[in-house]
C-alpha cells in the first residue's frame, strides 16, 4: 500500500553531486526550507485555531542515542513530538544533558539544543522511564558484525528483554536498527517470553539516513517505509510520520527489513559497477567520469552513486552487504552478485596502491601527503574508512604519511595508525615537502587550495586523486603529474 502523508510530494532534490559545497550550507540550506513543521504542510486543511504541535504531538521513546537514535529523536522533536532518548552509556547522556553533541553532523547540534530548550527532547539512562514515556518505542541500538559477516544481534535482544517487564500498557515497539530479515519475529518472541501478558506490536521501520546529511534526509525523506502486521500499530506509525511530507510505503515486517538491506546493497552495487568500469576505462584510455555522465543521463539509471573512487566504506555499506550475503546464505539462496560487489570494492584500493607504488617505485621512506581521513566528506566518522585503510597500508610499507582532514583528525588518535602519522593544520601544510599527494576523501575545500603554491612546496608534484575530485587538465596545467581513477593512463 502506498500513500502520501501530505498533499504534495516534492521530489527530493538532494544529489550526490561530488563538488557540492557543503561548507556554506546551514540546515536551512540543506533542507532548502525553514525548519518548522508548518512549512511542510498544506495549512489550509487545518482550521485557523488548530495548533500543529498539539495536533501531531505524540510521546515517543528512542532506545539507543547513537548516530541514528539521536538524529531521529531530534528530528521527531523538531516536528512537534515529545521525545525521550534513552542510552545505557551514562557518560553519553551526561554529555547530551550538558548540551554537547558527541558526533559531528550538520544541523544536529542546533536541533538538539532548540528542542531540549522547548521541552520536546529529553534524555535518560533509565529504560523503565523511557518505556513509560512513549506510546511508540523505537529501538536504535548498534548491530555490529560477527567475524563471519553475519549480524550480532545481542544488543537488540537485550533491549527486547529489558523493555518487556516495563510494558504496562499497549506499546508499539519499532525496530529502527538495520537488521537481517526475520529479526522482528525474534523481537516479538523475546518480549512475549519475558512478558506474556504485555500488550504490544512489533514494527520494522528502516532508516535511510546518510551521514553528513542525516537531518535533511530525515526531515525531507525520499520515502518512509514501515512494516507492520497490525492495523493498530500501523495507525500509530502513520501518526508519528504525519508531519513529514513523503510517500509512505507500508509493508509486512519481513519485507521492510529486506528493503533496508536491498537498498544499501543496490547502492553498493552501483558503486562497484562504476568502479569495475573505471578499470576498463584505464585499460582502454577512456574517462570514467564521462561514461558515468553518459549512462547517468538515462533516468532509468540515474547519475547518483556512480562516482568512481577508492570504493565504499563507512559503518553501513561494508557491514550491511556482508550481513545480506550471510543471511542469504543462511536462507539457502547464496547471493553471488553481492560477493562480486565486495570483491570489486576491495580491488579498487589494491589497484590504487599498486598505481602509487608503480609511480614511486618504492614506498619506504617516501613522504606522502594524504588529504582526507573520514569515510566520506562532511562527517568526522572514521569507521571502516577506506582513507584510513589506505594510510595504514602506506605506513605498513614504510611511507612517512602527513595527513589533513577538516573534521576527522580529532578521532584518528583513537586508532593505532594515529600514532604512526603526522597531522597537519591545513591541506597546504600536509603537502609541504611531500613526494606525492593523495586525495582520499573528497572534501569540497580540497578543490579550492592554491595548487600552484602546493606544487611549488612539494618535493615532487605527483598527485593521486582517489576520488576524482579535481580536473586532470587543470592539475596538469598547474604542473602536477596527475593520476585519477578510471581516467586513462
Ligand atoms: C548509507 C546509505 O546511503 C543510507 O541511505 C543508509 O541509510 C545508510 O548507509 C545506513 O545504512 O545507515 P552512509 O553510509 O552515510 O549512508 O554514506 P553514503 O553516502 O551512502 O556513502 C557510503 C560510501 O560509499 C562512502 O564511503 C562513499 O565515499 C562511497 N560512495 C558513495 C562512492 O564511492 N561512490 C558514490 O558514488 C557514492
Task: Provide a short characterization of the protein structure.
With 489 residues, the chain is of the alpha/beta class. It is built from 19 helices and 15 strands. The protein has two domains: 2-251, Rossmann fold, CATH 3.40.50.720; 263-483, Rossmann fold (3-Layer(aba) Sandwich), CATH 3.40.50.
By CATH reckoning, the class of the largest domain would read Alpha Beta
Architecture of the largest domain, CATH level 2? 3-Layer(aba) Sandwich
Biggest pleated-sheet summary: 9 strands, mixed
Tally of alpha and pi helices: 19
Mean pLDDT: 89
Oligomer: single chain
Question: Would you spell out the secondary-structure blueprint of this structure?
Answer:
Elements: E1 2-4, H1 27-31, H2 52-56, E2 59-63, H3 67-78, E3 82-86, H4 90-97, H5 108-117, E4 121-124, H6 127-133, E5 136-139, H7 154-163, E6 171-175, H8 183-194, E7 200-204, H9 214-219, E8 224-228, H10 231-241, E9 247-251, H11 253-284, H12 288-296, H13 317-330, H14 336-360, E10 367-371, H15 386-396, E11 400-404, H16 409-412, E12 422-423, H17 427-431, E13 436-439, H18 451-457, E14 462-465, H19 472-477, E15 481-483
Parallel strand pairs: 2-3, 2-5, 3-4, 5-6, 6-7, 8-9, 10-11, 10-13, 11-12, 13-14, 14-15
Antiparallel strand pairs: 1-9, 7-8
The protein binds uridine-5'-diphosphate-glucuronic acid (UGA).
